Amino acid sequence: MRLQSFGAACTVTGSMHLLTLDGGRRILIDCGLFQGSGALEARNHEPYPFDPADLDAVILTHAHLDHVGRLPLLVNRGYRGPVYCTPPTAALAETVLLDSARLQLEGYRQHLRHARRQAREDEVLPPLYDEEDVHRALDLLRPVLEFGQAATVAGLRVTPYRAGHILGSAYLLLEDAGGRLIMSGDLGHRAGGLQLDFTPPPQADAVVLETTYANQRHRAWPETLAEFRDVLCGAVRAGGKILVPSFAIERSQTLLHTLKALMDSSEVPRIPVFLDSPMAARATRAYFQFGDELVPEVRDALRSGEDPFAPSTLHEVLTGDESQRLNRYDGPAIILAGNGMMTGGRIQHHLRHHLWKPGTRVVIVSYQSPLSLGGQLVAGAQTVEVMGEEVAVRAQIQTIGGFSAHADHDDLLAFLETAGCPHVWLVHGEVPVMQAFLPELAARGLKGDIVPDRQDVDLLGSGFSGGRPPGLGLEPGPEGLKVAADE
Ligand SMILES: [Zn+2]
């Protein structure tokens, strides 16, 4: 089996891995969008280094945008074959891809308006795809993959296992006469959140492993909950708005469930909770539909007819007008709005209205790219530009790191424990993080390598080994390479 990675190689975004099997069969694992910085996002517009029409199949590990977001483009450029995934991934992919098409169109129109004033409209890149491309891509979905059950894809035996990262997320065991390969997709953090832990993997000859947080240990779940409670209680005493920028899938549901639990047990006062994200509200429907996939506490609540994602004070804000009207709402309230890195979305107008007030709290529960608005707030900026306006930062910015949906250092090593003695190929990580992880693999007697960007590697052959592939030569820039837009 040969692998070429056209995304998530030496970076954390744009997952797209091309597997070439004996006889020339070609399977694409994930087809994600590059997100984060302009340089990375420019790669979305590059031509594919292969003919999409030549692919035999596509398999999606999960529905995060950086794993599915270029699928409509693949279809636009000629792919007509099947796209295999689990049923929850298919349900969430519809929400994610339709939202992506809408955002691209809005972004394009906005850029065009600005560029026209400078007579530079020729420089504005058109949207990658439109809603029609999304529907054509959705028509190709084959949501037939079930955890633990082998399927045949282009003559290859494929068994998906629970990855514990977000609803429906899978890692894949791929088997043919040449050997056994595991593609990790994104793995979840054990013991916390809504998802069951990942299934310990079977033995394999090679593992392509995500390494987003291979250099970190997340705080334990009970400590994270206590921290969240203390931050909320302090914020309620301050009397201002509590703004929680959050991603629509998994993070929003986890936060709503946590808020409900904290309010039901009277650990946090019952102040209004506004979910200002129609996409999050739509995604939550999939959590109802596939409730049996979730941790027992949530699954049982759903079975008994409860809504585990609805604190008693929850209001869903659907229209843009309703969202704007929240600016005139008096008194303390929790506002959950996207996007998670504050680079766009409804959170921006809430920030513009409340960042300058000392009573406001911005509670950050996910990774912030250093150049994003969220990154500037985390770095302690005194003023920031929001929607074209300079705003003083008098609000308190509070970061809670333990809500991550990604495996940490210990989770990744635990994952490898049952996999035998595979050759471990590292993807979906910053280069320095992966380099620091290689000696840990060596200490466990495992051969490890970093998958180079776009180069062809023989996964089950000897590989190049020694950690640094020829021609890698990629060093992180001042802003780093990491974006982790989905975590
Ligand atoms: Zn993910």
From TrEMBL:
<feature type="compositionally biased region" description="Low complexity">
    <location>
        <begin position="471"/>
        <end position="481"/>
    </location>
</feature>
<dbReference type="InterPro" id="IPR050698">
    <property type="entry name" value="MBL"/>
</dbReference>
<dbReference type="GO" id="GO:0016787">
    <property type="term" value="F:hydrolase activity"/>
</dbReference>
<dbReference type="Pfam" id="PF00753">
    <property type="entry name" value="Lactamase_B"/>
</dbReference>
<feature type="region of interest" description="Disordered">
    <location>
        <begin position="463"/>
        <end position="487"/>
    </location>
</feature>
<feature type="domain" description="Beta-Casp">
    <location>
        <begin position="252"/>
        <end position="377"/>
    </location>
</feature>
<dbReference type="InterPro" id="IPR022712">
    <property type="entry name" value="Beta_Casp"/>
</dbReference>
<dbReference type="InterPro" id="IPR011108">
    <property type="entry name" value="RMMBL"/>
</dbReference>
<dbReference type="Pfam" id="PF07521">
    <property type="entry name" value="RMMBL"/>
</dbReference>
<dbReference type="InterPro" id="IPR001279">
    <property type="entry name" value="Metallo-B-lactamas"/>
</dbReference>
<dbReference type="GO" id="GO:0004521">
    <property type="term" value="F:RNA endonuclease activity"/>
</dbReference>
<dbReference type="Pfam" id="PF10996">
    <property type="entry name" value="Beta-Casp"/>
</dbReference>
<keyword id="KW-0378">Hydrolase</keyword>
<feature type="domain" description="Metallo-beta-lactamase">
    <location>
        <begin position="13"/>
        <end position="236"/>
    </location>
</feature>
<dbReference type="InterPro" id="IPR036866">
    <property type="entry name" value="RibonucZ/Hydroxyglut_hydro"/>
</dbReference>
<protein>
    <submittedName>
        <fullName>Cleavage protein</fullName>
    </submittedName>
</protein>
